[in-house]
Amino acid sequence: MRRGEAAGRLIILLAVTAVIAAIIAGMMLIDSPAKERAKKLDKRRVSDLAEIALTIDRYWERYHKLPADMNALQEGVVSEIEIADPKTLRSYGYRITAASAYELCAEFDTKQSKESWMYRAGRERDWSHNAGEYCFRLTPYEK
Q1: pTM for this structure?
Q2: What is the rounded radius of gyration, in angstroms, for the C-alpha atoms of the chain?
Q3: Within 10 A of 115 (CB to CB), how many other CB atoms are there?
């Protein structure tokens, strides 16, 4: 075998190796479609819970008490809200824990950290959660 042929084969082998390495690296960096769907569902759950919390804030401002259950939020109050998980179709959890404190619960597929949403007057709520059943301990905000 001549030097030119050996050098050509070496270049081809190196190029193929580089392409394979790039494909493997890309697969390791990009989540699978199933994981991306799970993240998207969890973002929807957080969005739903944030909207429920905002509706509870409005209910608190109007009635100066927490709603007995989420059905009270649906009865002629400010806006239409989603109270069921988009995947399981089960209602999100809601529990009153004190006169001015409550929990909103959901089943999450993934862990999400540093998930906060701005509320009126620059107030934030932290929506970070672990995978599995997770409850957010909240109090209503007032204007």
Answers
A1: 0.74
A2: 25
A3: 14
pLDDT above 90: residue 103:
yes
**Distance, first Cα to last Cα, the chain:** 83
Closest CA relative to residue 66, chosen from 32, 98, 110: 98
Look at residue 90 and give its three-state secondary structure. Answer: coil
The DSSP string of 16-77 is HHHHHHHHHHHHHHSPPHHHHHHHHHHHHHHHHHHHHHHHHHHHHHHHSS--SSHHHHHSSS
Residues in CB range of 113: below 8 A, 6 or more apart: 128
The two structure tokens encoding residue 53: 């919390």
58, 64, 135, 142: which is closest to 102 by C-alpha? Answer: 135
